[in-house]
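re: ur question from earlier - yeah i can do the single chain one, its not a big deal. heres the input i used so u can compare w yours
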Amino acid sequence: MIPRPRAALCAARERGGCGGGPDGPGGRAEALEMPEDAGLALLRRPEVHTGPVAHDPARRRLQLLVPEGSAEELPGLLEWLEWRGIELELSARAPFDPREAAIWLRPPEPGRDADHVDLVRLVSAAATECHRARLTRTAVLRVRKPGEISRWPSRTPRGYWREHGRGH
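and the output i got, formated as C-alpha cells:
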C-alpha cells in the first residue's frame, strides 16, 4: 500500500517548517525542477496555482518552490499518480537557495509562498506537462516531398491502388 502523499508535508508543518516565504522562519526552500517548455505550459494553465517560480535560462529549467518535505515526497507521489516508469524530466531540489534564481517569473511575495501550494495537483499537472513536452520534442514530423507516393496500403472498397504495386 502506498502511503498518503501529504503525510510528509503534514509532518513538516508540525515541526514548524514551511513558514513564511520561500525560505521562511524554521523552514527551507525546496523546488520542483522541470524543463522550460513544460514549465511555461504549466504556468499557462489557469487551474494550477503555484508558489514562487524561478527560471534558469542557461539550463532551460524552471524551479517551482514547494513546501519543505516535498522533495522526499515526489517519488512516492509520482508512483501514487501512476507516473512510475515514465521518464518525465521532473525532479526535486532540496535545499533550493532562492538567491540562485536567475529570473523570478513569479517572485516570492505575501500570499504567494510555497505553503499555499496543493502539491498533489501541482505534481499531477507538472507530470502531464513534462510528458507532453517530451512527446512534442521527440516527435518526428515526416513531410512528403512533392510527387512522393505513400507506401502505406490504401483502404478502399476495391483493394489497393495501382501506385502501391498491388490491386486492380
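The chain has one domain: 7-138. not sure if urs matches, ping me
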